[in-house]
Design goal:
This protein has 452 residues and is α/β, with parallel strands linked by helices. Helices cover 35% and strands 22% of the residues. Helix 4 packs parallel to helix 5. The longest helix has 18 residues, at 430-447. It binds zinc ion.
Length: 452
């Protein structure tokens, strides 16, 4: 049955719209028709006649979370790369495992990640795939119903890169071009393309030089890792004679359609470059802590006018894909340096929703609950032992950021379709996805020479 056939009303929740005025409806409704929000607030019974009803009592209704940096291809490798710094983590575990993927294992990985994201209230993501079989990630996102911007990881040089991930420059650029043509704008606009050079050390100057011309396509993004770990800084300087941010600017790769993951190792000059070019940053606090990368100075970025979104990064460096975890850490990490309140829960909630949408270039379509926007939204149950007692209405952001967990997500909608209803995935079987992941991981470990 097409879940979008009938109008749908989400009733009786506290609706945090995240609109420009910060409107909150203490006990409101959201009326959805087709893939759009028709009305927000108090919807009269006459307008909801014949509509399917979803209960939001005791819950908060929010725009769906937007994660601005994820690797679905790594979800299968969760719990397989522990206690390593970034470069060893990549060279000894993640790159060999990514090189071991075939279309079937990659599909299992994407399904696992997408199931976790939807069950945890993430409705949109910016994904960096691996080098091969990127079409599988788009196919699984289309099948699972989520909103995905992503692209193939571009790698044509670098130390410690396995042969299976190292491509000829021209071949990498050609496949990248074909993927962008095939997938950008598909599934009613839910799927979009991003050029994803992995990081500067894995891309030749020839490859990077090809990308600005490719970005002419309407709405295609540029997404890469930059200024992540202290160990990468001297290597980037030796290769380019500049900082990672300066090197990207010199190659004409910064701008309003560029999103850089991490940006921890940044100077004042780097910050000015990011601000001047309108480049966005994806802050991934769990990953940054686990890989020993450091703490991104988010208050400095925001004070400079730089747009910041949040992301879980890959499952092996987190080990969750939970926006709740990233929101809580993003807020807490700044307290020892700046003191309480420098990054308020309300501000963090904006980064997790409307700011992420703007970084994806989708601010006119998603990121807030307003009539006419796509119906990407989540219903988060706050009548749980770990979230109760309910705070006053003006403190709901605090409970969402500091107390709520993915288990609180009651319903998740993308484009008006209920993809999670009463904590259950509607399009796919959760047990089957977990069983497939369990079955297929040993194949990758064996191929990567990492089986024990
Ligand atoms: Zn990453």
């Amino acid at each position: 049955m097409n879940a979008r056939a009938a109008p749908l009303i989400i009733q009786g929740g506290s609706v945090i719209t995240l609109d420009d005025a910060g409107t909150v409806h203490p006990c409101g409704d959201v009326l959805v028709e087709g893939d759009r929000i028709r009305q927000v607030g108090s919807v009269p019974e006459s307008a909801a006649a014949g509509a399917r009803r979803l209960d939001a009592s005791g819950a908060v209704v929010l725009p769906g979370f937007v994660q601005t940096h994820v690797h679905l291809c790594q979800a299968l490798f969760r719990n397989q790369a522990e206690e390593l710094g970034l470069l060893d983590w990549l060279r000894c575990r993640i790159w060999p495992l990514e090189a071991a993927h075939d279309p079937e294992t990659l599909a299992a990985s994407a399904d696992l990640g997408l199931a976790e994201l939807l069950l945890g209230g993430t409705t949109s993501l910016l994904d960096m795939a691996t080098v091969h079989h990127t079409e599988v990630v788009f196919q699984r996102a289309e099948a699972m119903g989520i909103r995905l911007t992503g692209g193939k990881a571009l790698m044509d040089c670098g130390d410690g890169v396995p042969a299976g991930l190292l491509e000829q420059t021209a071949a990498a650029c050609e496949e990248n071009r074909q993927l962008a043509r095939a997938w950008h704008g598909q599934a009613g606009g839910r799927l979009r393309y991003a050029h994803c050079p992995r990081f500067i050390l894995s891309c030749s100057d020839e490859l990077l030089a090809a990308l600005p011309g490719e970005m002419a396509e309407d709405g295609v993004l540029m997404h890469t890792h930059a200024a992540e770990h202290p160990s990468e800084v001297p290597l980037v300087r030796a290769r380019t004679g500049a900082s990672g941010i300066e090197a990207l600017e010199l190659r004409d790769l910064l701008g309003p359609r560029t999103c850089l993951a991490h940006c921890i190792q940044v100077s004042k000059t780097d910050l000015q470059l990011l601000a001047r070019t309108g480049t966005a940053v994806a802050h991934c606090p769990s990953s940054n802590l686990k890989l020993g990368s450091g703490v991104c100075d988010v208050p400095a970025l925001l004070a400079a006018g730089i747009r910041v979104g949040l992301g879980a990064d890959g499952a092996p460096c987190n080990n969750r894909l939970s926006m709740f975890t990233e929101m809580r850490l993003a807020a807490l990490l700044q307290v020892p340096v700046y003191g309480p309140g420098v990054l308020s829960a309300g501000r963090v909630l904006e980064l997790a929703t409307r700011e992420g949408a703007a970084i994806l270039g989708l601010e006119n379509r998603i990121g807030s609950l307003e009539a006419g926007k796509q119906a990407d939204l989540v219903v988060i149950d706050l009548e749980q032992p770990h979230t109760a007692p309910a705070p006053p209405l003006d403190r709901l952001a605090e409970v969402l950021v500091h107390a709520a967990t993915p288990g609180c997500v009651r319903h998740t909608l993308v484009d008006g379709e209920v993809l999670v209803e009463n904590h259950t995935l509607t399009r796919v079987d959760r047990q089957r996805i977990v069983a497939e992941a369990q079955r297929l991981l040993p194949r990758c470990l064996t191929r990567a020479g990492l089986a024990r």
